[in-house]
Fold:
Amino acid sequence: MDEVLLLIRIFLASVFIIAGVGKLADMEGSKRAFREFGVNDELSEGIAYALPIIEIGFAILLLPVFTAWFGAIGCFILLAVFIGGMLWQLAKGQTPDCHCFGAIHSEPVSWKSLIRNIIFAGFAFALVAQGNYNQGLGFTELTIDMAIQLIFGIVFVALLALAVFYLKKISEQQDQVMRRLEVIEVLAHEGGREVARDNVNAPQDGLPIGAKLPQFELKDLAGRVVTTKDIESRGRPMLFFFVSPTCTPCASLLPEIEEWQKEFSDSLDVVLISTGDSAQNAEKFGGKSFKEILLQEEREVGKKFRAEWTPVGIFINYDSVIGSAPAVGDAAIRELIAKLRKEDVSKVYAVGDVSGVGELSIGSEMPEFEVSDLKDNKVSNADLKGRNTLVMYWSMGCGHCRAMMPELIAWENAKSDSDPKLIVFSQGSVSDHEPLTINSPVLIEEGSKTAETLGMPGTPAAILVNEDGKIVSQVAVGAANIWALVGREPIAGND
Structure:
């Protein structure tokens, strides 16, 4: 019995050390987890730092026999609190990330994680019930034979756990490969029928992060009309899933979509955009819970979002602008969800790769500059503050720029106070720009230093800068992407 109690102490100490170290390795995740459990921001900050230290402290107390009882009491109380919190969340129908082992392993609250904590609590209670003076063998009381047996037992368990871990990893990788093959097959054959894809964009070629939502008007399964304005008026982040009733991976993803809808219910809305009729989609995607399903005719809205393949997931942030690159296929969608779990979804502007702005990234301050415009007025980065600004990189020697000129002039003349103002960085001489009859400042910067810092690879290109002077979009290259930043559909053929 004494040997068993020692093993229980070692096991619990290992669990709490791993949990504490894992949480310290992902403090932001810990803070977010506490917020999801209903703890306010100020308390979340303090608890996120205190909890892992307390866990490691109780783990250390478990090891010496003369402090083990106090460590066991501490572990039991912590586990009881964890169990109570999980039961409370499950009773409310919510599944926040438990963040139990921090960066090492984290998952949404479920009956599985609850049962695991109950088992751990059972071990802790067994130690507490033995009393202060009956906590099993101390390490100094071990005979050589017992020590060898203990070491062999620990090594065996560790190797077994390692083998299970790697087998699980291999299984997950094989599953991902199979799913990717499934996606490739469906991209080539939809529902067993060959599908022509000659006029669609590449799967990953989506709208730039920071682009406004394209304008659309769709009906839901009940025939109610939903427009872009309706979506924007909700003021909530969203996950758009582009699906099809003839898409096999879409159907296999449905149970997970329902789980994600439940998991993120407090922070974002899930919207499915599909093709086909109401009956088809109700049968295919009805599932076990209500889902908002909007129906397009011939992928016309998918084309606007550059999401013509299925399944595709796109995150729409709190500002109702594009907040992620398109996640194409079920494996990529799961990766997007994993990234969202690491964020405060209600506050995050962009998820995943927020680069694409040269040496800077989305959220960075606009680099300092002071350049003269065509009228010899000095314009600097300070002039960008106070109102959103479309910062363009232009060249009068660029055929695509010249083709865009009439539309640029029309937009400048028609835009309202709510639209961004315009500043153009250009190349060449003042006389070269005589045909450019726009009222906005055109800055001639030798060497194109600002454009290079922003990572603008050619012309035309643009970024959005907000009223605080911060970059809020990726670099948009080409007329279509530039107009996407300001929510204007380009003239057909002007790209």
The radius of gyration is 29 Å. Residues 189-203 have pLDDT under 50 and may be disordered. The domain at 217-341 is CATH 3.40.30.10 (Glutaredoxin).
